[in-house]
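RECORD TYPE: inverse folding
INPUT: structure tokens
STRUCTURE:
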């Protein structure tokens, strides 16, 4: 997809999201029988706009800043999580001030204002930085950055030079990417993380209100604790990581799985019921989830540079689409599963069952270590070229 088209789709998605919020504000004025159907309609429109915005957004990060994608992803996730942090707080305040429509009207106005600013900032003639697979032309000598010790980056450079450019390119699609185990495992990680972020949406507030006798007006503050620690970790910790991303991804995901047993907490642990234990589990998940969420997409894109050196930009565009599909699918199934498990087993046991799923899905990531290790065995080829 061309740069200008990606920017156009991004703008349209942002505008659609903003307009959908005004639809939510109109719900109290509809007949009672129409409330649920139109809620679903506006939520579908909002989700469609979000997908239109996020898919080119993450692809553009790699196009404009291929050498600093980890830092840019961290910055993007910082502002995303900061929105998760202040959203429940200000939503609660605005609800107290003006009732149901006011939070949606305020969010809609802010979204449209941001959209108008982005339209001015993102000039359609902006050219992204050259991606490594487009940087070498026929007859150009090999230039290796000896300060960059990342094996995947070095291998991407070498593969681009020694590749036969007269060979016709093969078209690639989503299934070409997913047939590679490490790519599928990466998107399974994103699906699992999306479930982690949304599993407690329909049940957490009810649990805290009933278990610890908290009012609905204060629950938003408790819900924002995980987002607060996520934003801090993403900008101050994860942004510094350049190498061995797969290990951070695995360890962070495992910690997320273990922390689920303390949300209740699980009765078999023998712990007494305290709200601070639940909050500590939330905050732990916030820190731990920042590592796999921020690092997985850059890691996937690095591997795509190895797998498809001559079609890297297209592969990255496809991976951005799969990334958003993974998140959307998790947001779809996780709240449904949460409601079912909570009704069947109770909040405490439902959290533990979900923790088991997170741990099992994370174990499926282990073979990636060996696959990537094979990819980075490039020293003989490096010596030959040099």
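DESIGNED SEQUENCE:
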């Amino acid at each position: 997809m061309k740069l200008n088209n990606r920017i156009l789709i991004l703008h349209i998605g942002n505008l659609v999201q903003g307009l959908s919020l005004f639809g939510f504000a109109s719900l109290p004025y509809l007949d009672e029988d129409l409330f649920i159907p139109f809620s679903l309609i506006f939520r579908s429109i909002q989700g469609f706009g979000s997908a239109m915005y996020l898919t080119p957004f993450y692809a553009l990060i790699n196009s404009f800043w291929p050498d600093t994608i980890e830092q840019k992803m961290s910055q993007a996730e910082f502002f995303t999580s900061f929105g998760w942090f202040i959203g429940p707080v200000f939503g609660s305040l605005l609800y107290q001030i003006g009732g149901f429509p006011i939070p949606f009207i305020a969010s809609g106005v802010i979204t449209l204002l941001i959209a108008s600013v982005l339209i001015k900032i993102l000039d359609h003639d902006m050219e992204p930085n050259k991606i490594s697979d487009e940087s070498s032309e026929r007859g150009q000598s090999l230039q290796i950055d000896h300060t960059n010790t990342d094996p995947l980056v070095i291998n991407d450079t070498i593969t681009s030079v020694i590749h036969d450019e007269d060979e016709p390119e093969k078209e690639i699609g989503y299934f070409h990417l997913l047939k590679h185990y490490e790519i599928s495992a990466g998107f399974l990680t994103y699906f699992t993380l999306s479930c982690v972020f949304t599993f407690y949406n329909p049940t957490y507030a009810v649990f805290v209100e009933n278990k610890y006798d908290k009012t609905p007006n204060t629950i938003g503050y408790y819900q924002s604790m995980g987002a607060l620690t996520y934003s801090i970790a993403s900008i101050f910790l994860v942004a510094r990581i350049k190498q061995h991303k797969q290990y951070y991804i695995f360890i962070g995901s495992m910690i997320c799985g273990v922390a689920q047993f303390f949300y209740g907490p699980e009765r078999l642990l023998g712990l007494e019921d305290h709200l601070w234990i639940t909050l500590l589990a939330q905050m732990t998940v916030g820190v731990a989830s920042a590592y796999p969420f921020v690092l997985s997409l850059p890691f996937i894109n690095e591997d795509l540079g190895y797998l498809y050196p001559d079609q890297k930009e297209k592969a990255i565009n496809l991976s951005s689409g799969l990334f958003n599909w993974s998140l959307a699918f998790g947001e779809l199934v996780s709240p449904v599963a949460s409601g079912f498990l909570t009704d069947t087993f109770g909040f405490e046991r439902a959290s533990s069952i979900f923790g088991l799923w997170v741990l099992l899905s994370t174990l499926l990531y282990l073979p990636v270590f060996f696959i990537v290790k094979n990819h980075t065995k490039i020293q003989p080829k490096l010596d030959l070229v040099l």
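NOTES: The two ends are 35 Å apart (CA to CA).
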